[in-house]
Amino acid sequence: MKTGVFLAFFLLGEIPCSALGFLQQGGLLGVGTGASNSTLFSAETPAGLTAEEIPPVLEMNPLSPNIHASAAPSRAEQVMRALLKAHPKRIKDIAFVDGDWAVELNGDWYFYAEGKILPQDIRSSSEPYTPQPFYNYPKDLPAWQRPTKEEAARLAQLTIARRSQQAANRSQFFYNALWGIHNRAEAWEQVKTIRFLDKNILVHHAILEELALVEQQITKTARNNRQVRQWLDSIGTISAWNWRTIADTQSTSNHAYGMAIDILPKTAHGLETYWLWTAQKREDWWNVPYSARYHPPDAVVKIFESYGFIWGGKWLFYDTMHFEYRPEILLLNNIAITGQY
């Protein structure tokens, strides 16, 4: 087993639940076997552990005509190209500058900086920050596999480490600039109320159209799909904007940007939705199979993904009520954003 990658994945909040299965098979999500020069995940690996480099995703087509992509683009180039394609109305261009890939946003350049995405004036003092997560995300939910005794023991240790280590402090400079939010007051100016699946929610104005189209497709699908119709009828609450950090960290939650929503049923009938809530009831939260978790229908997940949202049910540290707008993650994993506008 590729132990370094296995350990590195478990320390991130958003990591694919396929990590166990695919590592047992000797790979990561089937997206390549060559080593990347990225050290993206090493900053969150416990002391004394070495993270192997993450395999690159499949090569993407050049996204900017004035930049020549190499035959094997680096992880930095891949991430920056994905960001440009994901946010073309906000990001103007990418370039290789001062030995690193960078994107131009609001007249300023933000550098990859080992995944931290930092402005020029912060590059030389980046030590306090941990990288933004640009991770492998599976197109389809892989089959659940019960961890071996060895893996379960490592997961127990890593859960303790996750809670006891210094809270992660992701560099938020880029996403603050991308969404125009640096504090609660600015967030309040950016969020708007939308009626979504019969609930009033506050979200960033930039995703009003995407959510309206997601709702349109879900309701259309429900006409001929009993499972989706029953899921719609079962919805109890939908929450979105909330000025807060990610649990147990110093990092800004995507809820604080109004870019994430949580959909909970009226009753979960004893099914688990969030790994941290499960961990408060049982230590072996990882031993909960899909059949014991609350999952929206796969058709619903696919509709969200087609408009740039990822689903927290595909993370190892699962959050099955959670959807967030991260089109760059889908593009990095060669998952097409096919929603019709």
The CATH topology name of the largest domain reads: Muramoyl-pentapeptide Carboxypeptidase, domain 2
What is the average of the pLDDT values? 81
Strand order of the largest sheet: 1-2-3-4
Number of beta strands: 10
Give a short account of the largest sheet. Answer: 4 strands, antiparallel
Question: Which architecture of the largest domain does the CATH hierarchy give at level 2?
Answer: 2-Layer Sandwich
Cα separation of the termini: 44 Å
Task: Give the domain tally.
Answer: 3
Share of residues in helices: 25-40%
**What is the succession of H and E elements?**
HHHEEEEHHHEEHHEEHHEEH
In DSSP terms, counting alpha (H) and pi (I) runs of 4 or more, how many helices? 11
Q: Segments where pLDDT lies below 50 for 5+ residues?
A: 1-13, 21-70
Structural category: alpha+beta
Top CATH class of the largest domain:
Alpha Beta
